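re the bet — no i am not wrong, look at it urself. input seq straight from the record:
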Amino acid sequence: MLAALVVLAPLALPNNYAYEVAIQIAINAVVCVGLNLLIGYAGQISLGHAGFFALGGYASAILATRYGVPVWLSLPGACIAVGALAHVLGRPTLRLKGHPLAMATLGLGVIISIALTTEDKWTGGPDGMPVPPLVLFGLAVQGEQAWYWIAGGLLVGTVWLALNLIDSPNGRALRALHGSEVAAQTLGIDCTRFKLQVFTLSAMLAALAGALTAHYAGFITPAKATFLHSVELVIMVVFGGMASVFGAVVGAAVMTLLPQLLTVLKDYEMMVFGAVLVATMVLFPQGLVPTVARWWNGRPQ
């Protein structure tokens, strides 16, 4: 269904601006699907995923511009490097639970943001740095339509990966971990290993999306690593519905598209945006997709 939507969507996209919004939706959805695996299925909060997103873009840019690594190698190399970093940082961090874990991941995001801003020799500092174009099969990817198919294909692949993961024994272990870590341990589930694995996978998906964003825009700044960006990603996951892969996609789509539609309100844009968020969470307390699914099936909330 999602693949069909991606294929048919260009019929309703009238111009390059619409393609640009669609690309941003797909990239945000990739991050949110990975973040939902961590938050919605494993029950581990993260308020620093924007840091991994930015690191993916900077790592690929630095490898390509400063070391001459081909972009088709620098991009996966950046994802692997960020995944390795997340694996190392996750070992002590994921021992925490609840609010301490949220504060620890927030701290990681802040540290990454500060490092990207101050290490101007490598990152260009607050002004950012240029990023070379993505080159595939010897040709530079240019134009919104070409990037749309790359972003759409990545989204379909990410959703396919997530759906297969949650239906596997590993996915059932993640859900058991979310329900009760003590009960999961009594069943022989290695909770530490599963938390670390899903945290690493989620960080790598964020890094991949960040790298693609950087190569698409041709520029990247530390603004991609801010706490506000991390909060936006979490809001997308909660809005669409935690523990719902398609909820993450819908949340990313709505929360990316809504600010574009509200620009006509000018000074009242943020006020209406906040009101929509409050109203949605009151009417759809479990998130948009799970609540609508319950209504559709005739079950009470």
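see?? The chain has one domain: 16-266. told u. also The first strand starts at residue 129 and ends at 130. so pay up
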